[in-house]
Amino acid sequence: MDFKRKSCILAAFFLVYVSRKACCVQGASKKSPYDAAITHYEMLSPSPSGNERAFCQARGACQGKTLVCPDQCKVRKPVKNKKQKGCFIDCSSKCEVTCKFRRPNCNGYGSLCYDPRFVGGDGVMFYFHGARGGNFAIVSDDNLQINAHFIGSRPQGRTRDFTWVQALSIMFDTHTLVIAAKRVTKWDDNLDALTVKWDGQTVDGVPTDGDAEWRANGGEREVVVERTDDTNTVRVQVANLVELNIKVRPIGKEENRAHNYQLPEDDAFAHLETQFRFFNLTDLVEGVLGKTYRPDYVSPVKIGVPMPMMGGEDKYQTPSLYSPLCNACRFQPLSGTATT
């Protein structure tokens, strides 16, 4: 009898313990399978090599998969006194892991590199040549516009320019942030060829020690330009709008020879390689890159050809790097926006 009574008591205690544990787990999670897939995951213990891991829980193509932070997320040449490690987890249908502190991935979503080659929000690669000396709307939405200034060269006998993006202008609210590559005669990896302008005023260098970052705009909509290497590589954040990973690089002698650019010896054609990450875009977003983030977008480029071309120069050309005006642009700047 005593034995049965003890067994019942133990069983009762066990059931109470299990039920309380289940409630605690449920309360801590507070997520259903229908929550936003991007953020619906559980962090696992690191892999044997120390890489972060996450288990995707939301319904969809990525459900049940384990995403692992890649080795390249560990910066080979860390900025002085700054820890640079970790990943962004995206458990949507992309099943993508990207480094928090990183160089642009020119094959990743939202990239803009080379003789401008894009990878759209739909994952489709295309080229948009623009024009030497021209300015084009890369993104134009209700509360954000990003323009690009193109530099280039046209060797004798060619019918079009070779072009690269030399500067980006990010317009929002009443503000304008410009990230640009300086004109460099001879390239040196140890010299900074990156410049920053905020509302028309040149920023006197982004710090290279401590937090290695420059901040503006306080709590209004904070802007951060953060070094991810000692020179020529930064991460730019405009809160709740966009994040950019940018690297300034030249056209090297071998690259010049291989592509027959025929560039002059007194110009390294320093330009930007960029990867964008957008937040809160509307369904009607425009721009060379922006439109590829529309939910109903279908790419018109020819898939499978070596250089799939995207037109639209007439729709997206702007009068200047600082102008929000183009035939398809949506951005309406507030009064007081910097225009120089």
Account of the 3D structure:
There is one protein chain. The protein is mostly beta strands and 340 residues long. It is built from three helices and 19 strands. Mean pLDDT is 85; it is low at 16-35.
Q: Would you summarize the structure shown here?
A:
This is ROOT CAP DOMAIN-CONTAINING PROTEIN. Keywords: Signal. With 340 residues, this protein is mainly beta.
Distance between the termini: 91 Å
- The SSE order reads HEEEEEEEEEEEEEEEEEEHEH
* Estimated share of beta-strand residues: 25-35%
Tally of helical segments: 3
Query: Which class best fits the helix and strand makeup?
Result: mainly beta
Q: So what's the overall shape?
A: globular
Helix content: 10-25%
The biggest beta sheet reads: 8 strands, antiparallel
User: Mean of residue pLDDT?
Assistant: 85
Radius of gyration: 24 Å
Count of distinct strands:
19
* Quaternary state of the chains: single chain
Which regions have little confidence, pLDDT < 50, spanning 5+ residues?
Answer: 16-35
Numbering strands along the chain, what is their spatial order in the largest sheet? 8-7-6-19-18-17-16-15
Organism: Salix purpurea
Signal peptide: 1-24
InterPro entries: Root_cap
Protein name: ROOT CAP DOMAIN-CONTAINING PROTEIN
